[in-house]
Design a protein that fits this description.
258 residues; three-stranded mixed β-sheet; 11 helices; globular; mainly alpha
Length: 258
């Protein structure tokens, strides 16, 4: 009888350990990135790039992980689409940090150049999941095309003042849906990104640049964008559905802590 219970306890311990290991295999990869965000990002979402440049070890360690691991290279670590998308969102934001440091932490904007943003987002090589790509391809060909979720536009950050606030916690597959809902709600409830002015509504240029993501098959573009925003306005004043829609100027200054 004692042998039976001993065997049973060992079996229970084995499956608990196996389950914990399986979860850790998905989530542990983002713990370094989570620490970077908590240490170098403030409550407004601005980044202390100067101090990060002096202490890049945890960021570099996280980048080493995502260079060789990911849904393509190690699919067993990503059992769900949410786990994959969380990985790509974290990777995009971490690679932006790396790009800013490579350009120099005193840079005033990543949009510099004859064609705004071309050098940073399209021509700068980034290394992810065993392959070379660019931030633009990661956003458009991987994140947008594969997952088709407009909420990602409130989750990825392009190192600019007018970007949605950078979260101080890493995305995880387990919490992703709530994290994306929270990010989009915060974005559209912030009058820096959505404003009501008499008979018109001013919204972030993101809703213009990526309008097809918010509109879908609808032909009434302005109404579709307003309807989408109203889904996340919560208890705030809802946007008039018949309002004229205009787009705010995008502040492309670096999102550096003052």
């Amino acid at each position: 009888m004692r042998f039976y219970f001993k065997t049973l306890l060992i079996s229970v311990w084995f499956f608990i350990t196996l389950g914990t290991t399986a979860v850790s295999a998905v989530t542990v990869e983002h713990s370094l990135w989570d620490r970077v965000l908590k240490e170098y990002v403030d409550d407004q979402g601005f980044v202390d790039y100067l101090r990060l440049a002096e202490n890049p070890e945890e960021l570099e360690a996280y980048l080493d992980i995502i260079r060789t691991q990911g849904p393509r290279s190690t699919p067993g670590k990503f059992p769900s689409a949410d786990d994959e998308l969380a990985y790509y969102l974290n990777a995009y934001n971490a690679l932006v940090f790396k790009g800013v440091l490579d350009w120099g932490p005193n840079t005033t904007s990543v949009w510099k150049g004859l064609i705004s943003g071309l050098k940073f987002f399209s021509l700068m090589d980034v290394y992810l999941d065993g392959q070379t790509t660019s931030l633009q391809k990661l956003e458009n060909n991987m994140i947008r095309a594969r997952y088709r979720d407009p909420r990602i536009h409130a989750a990825i950050n392009c190192a600019s003042v007018s970007c949605p606030r950078l979260r101080r916690t890493a995305f995880t597959g387990e919490l992703l849906q709530d994290q994306l809902n929270d990010s989009m709600a915060e974005f559209v409830q912030d009058d820096r990104h959505v404003r009501i002015l008499n008979t018109s509504v001013q919204v972030s240029a993101i809703f213009d640049w990526f309008s097809e993501d918010f509109v879908g098959d609808r032909e009434d573009t302005d109404r579709a964008i307003i309807d989408y925003i109203n889904r996340y306005r919560g208890t705030m004043q809802r946007l008039p559905t018949d309002a004229k829609l205009t787009f705010l100027k995008y502040d492309k200054s670096i999102n550096r802590q003052k």
